[in-house]
Structures are given as C-alpha cells and as structure tokens.
Amino acid sequence: MSEMIPQLSNYDEASLEAAFATLSDEVRQQAAELKTTEAQENFRLNWLGRKQGRLKLVSDAWLKSAPAEARKPLGMRFNQLKQQIEQALEAPAAAASSATVQGIDITLPGTVRQPGIAHPLISAMHEVVRVFHQLGFSTNLGPQVESDFYNFEALNFPPNHPARDTQDTLQIAGQQVRPSRDRLLMRTHTSPVQIRTMIAQEPPIRIVIPGKVHRNDAADATHSPIFHQIEGLCVGPDITFSDLKGTLDHAMKSLFGSAVKTRFFPSFFPFTEPSADVQISCIFCGGSGCRKCKHSGWIELLGCGMVDPAVFAAVTAERRRVNPDDDAYDPAKIAGFAFGMGVERIAMMLHGVSDIGHFYSGDMRFLEQFA
Ligand code: DAH
Asked: pTM of the entire structure?
C-alpha cells in the first residue's frame, strides 16, 4: 500500500480523535473520486483488503501496542471508519440505480434523430413550381384515382381512340357496370386537373399542377409505373403561342442556367393544337454532342401546346350543367396554353442520376447526398 501506516504514540481520547479524523478525511477525499467501477474496486482493496488492506494494517499496528483500556474505544472507532468506507462504496451504486428511471437507463447515449430533408424528387418539384410561382402561377392539385371523363374524354381522347394507347392505363377493378365516362382509373397524367380547374374557375387562369401519375409500364432505368409530373395551364383573353414559348424558355433558363437554349418541335397531343415537344440544349456538353444527348446536342424535356377548342367545349358543357348561359371558355374570347413535364427526368438531369430506381429505393446512401 502506498500510504504510510500512521504512528500512534498516545492512546488518550484526544490522540485517538485526531488520528481517526485524519483517516476519515482520507477516506472522504478518496470516496469523492470514485467515478468508475475500477476506482471503486481499488478503493475497496486499498481499505478493506483482507491481508494488505489499510484498515487491517493500521488496526494491527495500533491494537498490538494498545494498553488494555484503550482497546474498546479503538475497536469502536475502527468500526465507525469501516462503516464510512462501506457507505462510500455503496453511494455510487445508489447514484447509478437512481439514474435508471422505470427501466430506462438514462445514462445510455440517446437516439440521435437525423434532421429530415426533402426527397430529391420533392425538391425538384418545388424548384419547378417556384419558377412558375414567380411568373404569377398558383398551384392546384387533383386526385390520383380519376374518372375516365377527366383523364381522357374531356381532354379529347374519345373512348377507344388510339391516342389512349400511348398511356397504358391501370384501371380500377369492377368499373364495367358504370357509364364509360364515370369509370375509375389511376390517372395517367396530371392533365385532368386542367379540366377540374377550368370547370371550377373562370379565366384568367395560371396554374401549375404537381403530382403522382400511374402507368402500366415495366420499370427500367428510365421508367417507373409510378412517377411525377408538373402540368401547367394558362388561359386568358390574349394568350398566344409566343407567350407559351417565352414562358417555357424562361422556365428552362431558370432551372438549368441562363446559357440553356430551347427549341420547339411539332408534335401531337389530343388536348392541344398545335402541339410541340420542347428540347433544351444539352446541359452536359453545352450543345456540342455527348453520350447523354445521344450526340444530338439537344435533350427532349416536355410537351406543350395551345389548348384545343375541343377541351374548352368539354369544359363549357360541364359548366352549363350548373349555369346554362355559361360562356367563360368561349374560344372566340379566350385562348390558352398548356404544358406537362416529368419530374423524375428533370431531377435526373439536375443531379446527374442515371437510374430512376434510386429515387424509390429508400437507400440512405443515395438520399444522404441531397442533405
Ligand atoms: N399529359 C402529357 C403526357 O403525360 C404531357 C403534356 C403534353 C401535358 C402537352 C400538357 C401538354 O399539358 O400541353 O404525356
């Protein structure tokens, strides 16, 4: 033992008092340092060890030379000191057990909750929507389980028309008993919300419609049976094709950088006439040609066009069920443009993601890169 055995030359009351006070102080100081179980064990061995314990050595030394009448007070004081040592050993255990509240060990490290972030698809959606909000568009939403009327008929896809084949549709079971316009399906695009908006609201209209859409497509690197679109619709008295071009050109520059160019190609959609596909100059090679743009310098990004008069006619027919004189969507007085784009495609381009499946895998190693 490192400490010396104190010498006791006198066995009168005052000398005993002073000698034990010194030992008791030592115990108190050491007891305050018992932070670990290892320290506790050392403390216990140091004082109470059977052969080399300090208590044993000191009592051996003092009792041996003690006169008979001093043995009793000595013994009592040794007992008190032993109690003090034993209490010091129990105290940390008591403190630890009070830290265990109803079976929860509050001394264990807590659960670290990572702050959440927007999913890359959601943030791409927000980015696009924000660009249009800055142009005065507002947002509208619609149901994912949609009727044939809104998804197809009112958008100028007549029943059995081949244009429907381009959107491989997931039908809701058991709908055959209903009239064809009421049959339910999973919406194949966000365009039905154009119809819902126009039936509910008079022009002028400027809305964007973000949302989930469903198609019976096999999943591969660029396709998923569930994906996201952002639709746009602008209707007013003097809306022209140049408004459409200017709006989309501005939006693409805001999203992909001011150096990006746009070009419009004739296309076909039943609900727009004329219709166009919009291409942007390749954001990877700047237009000189690379693997990503299949060496064309251009990337096709969205569809658009001027709202077909047949769409306004379908909207008017619906509005007249409520107000027979309604002519808010008379094509002689108003015109409109519409556009639709895939969110996944935009997110893949913005972040250089080559497999659409990453967005749905829930793999934290992928998602954490967007934190
Ligand atoms: N709904 C079309 C689709 O899913 C995309 C689209 C094209 C929407 C042209 C439009 C538009 O509003 O004008 O393929």
From this structure: 0.72
